Write a sequence for this structure.
């Protein structure tokens, strides 16, 4: 259960990082 939570949390962080990079690359969005 703990590992599953860590995996979900890690995926969320990765998605957030990708979104932040996308916003930096496309500030007009």
């Amino acid at each position: 259960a703990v590992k599953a939570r860590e995996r979900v949390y890690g995926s969320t962080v990765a998605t957030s990082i990708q979104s932040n990079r996308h916003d930096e690359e496309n500030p007009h969005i």
The chain is about 85% helix and 0% strand. The CA atoms of residues 1 and 7 lie 10 Å apart. The longest helix spans residues 2-25. The chain has a mean pLDDT of 73.
